[in-house]
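Input sequence (210 aa), recorded before submission:
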Amino acid sequence: MSGQDQDDTLILPYTTAQKKLKGITWLDDILCSATSQEVVKLAGQQAAALLRDRHHLRPEEDDDFNIRNPEDIIQAQLTAKRTLTVLLLVIASISLVVGGIGIMNVMLVTVTERTREIGVRLAVGATRWAIQLQFLGESVMLSLLGGGAGVVLGIVGTVFVGRILGWPVQLTTESVLAAALFSITVGVCFGFYPARRASRLDPIVALRYE
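Predicted structure, token format:
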């Protein structure tokens, strides 16, 4: 269960170990099995009562031992997994926000540099929706390029670490599609303000812009 190699394990009666290994008069772990799955908790309670009696503990004294059953171990593993998942989500969210702010700044600079172009397009009949859609598309393309580079680096890094540590690697199409979807979402959300700002420019002011 814990991933230990059973070929490196020696099993013998504890009394024999205590006699053959001098100075060993205590036990670190005791493994017990219940008669059925339904009485696991009851068996733990009985084991606790027996240990308290053997250790001569009074009712007001705390246990000087720990009893763990498989359900507790599994629950602890699930809790650790959820904590790690939340931590990764927080880190990913911060990365997305930072990347989105970078895209928004780039698009704002682009709008400023292309003010005369926007003014010409508006003067010859381009609609504000067309201008907004143009800059939204550019923002999405920027985020998709960044997301694609991130996916490639992520796959390379995952395979590299997996080979070094000997871990199995499983890459799914769903994860790649999810990355692309997140990239599009970031591009739309953080590119909306620059695109709207470009579409609301006054054509006359834009044509006079130097």
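Checked by second reader. The chain is about 70% helix and 0% strand.
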